[in-house]
Design a protein that fits this description.
By secondary structure, this protein is mainly beta. The protein contains two helices and ten strands; from the N terminus they run ααββββββββββ. The radius of gyration is 22 Å and the shape is elongated.
Length: 244
């Protein structure tokens, strides 16, 4: 479902939303009641979100990718320009299984399900400062977090995604449908590092290659790789302000 949608890098999609935003100096010359800018009067947000998670799972597809995550966001605009965010999401993704000792032409199977839970902390900068532009408040930011994976009983290759630290640059926009109802659109990339078992660098015992043409999964012996995953998120939430 998500493979086709994520052929175009997701950051391009939200850049189209943020593109029309003019510098704050463009307010000059507008009468207050006709200005496209409005002050952000509510600076806390609680949002329910759904994410389409893409990527290819690395060189051989063993890392989780392709699926849907559901979760929530709690956001605070500290000074109406700089905000902080706490997020949680969970769901089931797909991944491939690679048997390093199997025949070269038949060593990959799947996909199989891989449960994943992500918790994150992020910082965001509102492009239009403490205001909206035509009820739109675009932002750029980044975050860090931890991803926790469930077991995959079908995998007998000794590969285990485990628990991973990740970092997440993002760009997006809040669209104020009313003073308290907010649509949130976000495009992000999630990066994490994966390490494969040692046998992925060895020739399969039943089908060894040659010193020049190894039949190992990773002939060069590099078992580690950084993987980037595209994530598109849509959320619907409420905006409010603490009474202090």
């Amino acid at each position: 479902m998500t493979r086709l949608a994520l052929r175009v890098h997701p950051l391009v999609i939200v850049l189209a939303l943020a593109g029309p935003v003019a510098p704050l100096g463009a307010q000059v010359g507008h009468a207050p009641d006709r200005s496209p800018y409005r002050d952000l009067t509510r600076t806390q947000f609680v949002t329910l979100v759904g994410s389409s998670f893409g990527g290819g799972g690395g060189r051989i597809g063993t890392a989780p990718h392709d699926g849907t995550l559901l979760g929530g966001r709690l956001e605070f605009l500290a000074n109406r320009t700089l905000g902080i965010q706490f997020g949680f999401s969970t769901g089931t993704l797909e991944r491939m299984i690679v048997n390093p000792e199997g025949p070269v032409d038949n060593r990959v199977s799947g996909p199989v399900d891989q449960t994943l839970t992500m918790v994150e902390f992020g910082v965001q900068l509102n492009v239009t400062g403490g205001k909206t532009w035509h009820n739109i408040a675009p932002f750029v930011g980044g975050g860090i977090g931890l991803a926790f994976s469930g077991d995959t009983p079908e995998d007998t290759s000794e590969f285990d995604f485990g628990n991973k630290f990740f970092f997440k640059p993002n760009i997006g926009a809040r669209i104020f449908l009313s003073r308290s109802v907010v649509l949130r659109l976000e495009a992000a990339s999630v990066f994490w590092k994966v390490t494969h078992p040692d046998q992925f660098a060895l020739d399969p015992p039943g089908n060894p290659g040659t010193p020049v043409n190894s039949n190992a999964v990773f002939p060069g012996g590099n078992l580690r790789e950084w993987i980037g995953n595209g994530v598109l998120t849509v959320g619907l939430g409420t905006a409010f302000s603490f009474p202090f």
